[in-house]
């Protein structure tokens, strides 16, 4: 299709909108106690990790890459994964002394 000379008019054309590939997750509103940016960032990261259950999902909720989230986990000293052994493999690793 060539549109040399006159502009192409898109009136009456309906383009399909692709379905979102991101999971629909509703996060509760966070109310901040003060304007401390580091505390707010720590709380957002912790809430996203808790809600998603893993780094990839939490990063998607926050709209950042997993590498960026890992950097924030280290910078903000967020304990991840949590120390409570919720998976059987965690209990095995803990008894073998392999837990970080």
Q: Which helices and strands, and how do they pair?
A:
Layout: H1 37-52, H2 55-62, H3 66-75, H4 88-95
Helix pairs in contact: 1-2, 2-3
Summarize the structure.
Helices cover about 40% and strands about 0% of the residues.
Helix content: 40-55%
Mean pLDDT: 76
Biggest sheet record: none
Structural class of the helix and strand makeup? mainly alpha
Give the radius of gyration: 22 Å
N-to-C order of helices and strands: HHHH
Count of distinct strands: 0
Global outline: elongated
In the predicted model, the low-confidence regions spanning at least 5 consecutive residues are none
End-to-end Cα distance, whole Å, is: 61 Å
Helix tally?
4
Tell me the strand percentage band: under 5%
Organism: Nannocystis punicea
Domain DNA binding HTH: 37-74
Protein name: DNA binding HTH domain-containing protein
What structural keywords apply?
single chain, 42% helix, mainly alpha, elongated, 100 residues
What can you see in these coordinates?
With 100 residues, the protein is mainly alpha-helical. It has a domain of 47 residues. It contains 4 helices and no strands. Helix 1 crosses helix 2. The longest helix has 16 residues.
């Amino acid at each position: 299709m060539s549109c040399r000379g006159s502009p192409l008019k898109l009136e009456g054309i309906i383009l399909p909108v692709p379905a979102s590939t991101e999971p629909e997750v509703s996060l509760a509103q966070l109310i901040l106690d003060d304007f401390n940016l580091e505390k707010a960032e720590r709380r957002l990261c912790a809430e996203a990790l808790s809600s998603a259950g893993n780094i990839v999902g939490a990063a998607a909720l926050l709209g950042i890459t997993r590498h960026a989230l890992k950097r924030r986990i280290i910078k903000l000293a967020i304990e991840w994964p949590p120390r409570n052994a919720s998976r059987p493999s965690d209990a095995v690793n803990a008894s073998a002394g392999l837990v970080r």
